[in-house]
Write a structure and sequence with these properties.
This protein has two helices and 22 strands. The protein is mainly beta. It has a single domain, classed as TolB, C-terminal domain (Neuraminidase, 6 Propeller). The longest helix is centred in the last third of the chain and has 20 residues.
């Protein structure tokens, strides 16, 4: 038996097992009318679980961090739920005015306050205010998404025909492009998938897809099982190891014992 050849083959197998592969991303959607959070495939828009979380009080904002879903309810609370099972972790982590849109980054929770037209900054762990008016002067703001240090904010404006998604600096709150995306159907949720922008339309019962520059790609990208969709968040698009750690460990152990045979024998 050619021990060196076997070692080479096992090393190749180990490298193959460790090579990254993509896992399907998920879209989580709050449904204002039915009081639920639905789960969908981000690549196809197909439904995975249209009622992952239920019994919510007119849910608005949604953010994902560390396997936890942060949900803003019309009643004035921000709750936390398990993203995998939908189980309640803390139904009232934060209590404030009218929280709607949410975003989490670096342990900080950004919250849209619809009543005051502001975006506040809070610690995700405690909910204590850092800056309750990081961004101000917004007109009927609904949701935010964070990308590359920029906050993307959906606003319904003072007229039903003036609906847009604006772009702001997440560190200073300064406007970058307040009217980046124009759309109709009451834009609420904002999220990113594959470098593109998702926008939920509450009155259109759909989720539209745009480029990062604001150009439309598919205005009915998701249209199954929605009932007044509000805010959305995308999970996934991460790399993981191949068949699993147990297969990889078994290969390494085999290589160890073969090396030992060479040294001893």
């Amino acid at each position: 038996m050619n021990i060196r050849l076997i070692l080479f083959a096992l090393a190749a197998c180990a490298a193959l097992c460790a090579s990254p592969r993509s896992t399907p991303a998920q879209i989580f959607v709050t449904n204002f009318v039915s009081g639920t959070i639905g789960e969908y495939d981000a690549a196809t828009g197909a439904a995975i679980n249209t009622a992952l979380v239920s019994g919510l009080d007119s849910p608005y904002g949604l953010a994902l961090s560390g396997g936890k879903l942060f949900v803003a309810n019309e009643a004035g609370t921000v709750g936390v739920y398990d993203a995998a099972t939908g189980a309640t972790i803390n139904a009232s982590l934060i209590s404030l005015g009218i929280p709607v849109g949410l975003a989490v980054s670096g342990g900080k929770l950004f919250v849209v306050d619809r009543a005051n037209g502001t975006i506040g900054e809070y610690p995700a762990a405690t909910g204590a205010a850092i800056n309750s008016a990081l961004v101000s002067g917004l007109v009927d703001p609904r949701d935010i998404a964070l990308r590359g240090g920029h906050l993307f904010v959906s606003e319904n404006g003072s007229d039903d025909l003036i609906n847009f998604v604006g772009e702001y600096d997440a560190a200073t709150g300064a406007p970058i492009n307040p009217t980046l995306i124009f759309t109709s159907g009451a834009p609420r949720g904002v999220a990113f998938v594959g470098g593109n922008v998702l926008v939920s339309l509450t009155f259109g019962d759909a989720i539209s897809l745009f480029t990062i520059s604001g150009d439309p790609i598919n205005e009915t990208f998701v249209n199954q099982g929605l009932s007044g969709p509000e805010h959305i968040v995308v999970a996934g698009e991460v790399s993981e190891t191949g068949p699993g750690p147990f297969v990889f460990a078994a290969v390494l152990l085999s290589m160890h014992f073969l090396r030992r045979r060479i040294v001893v024998g």
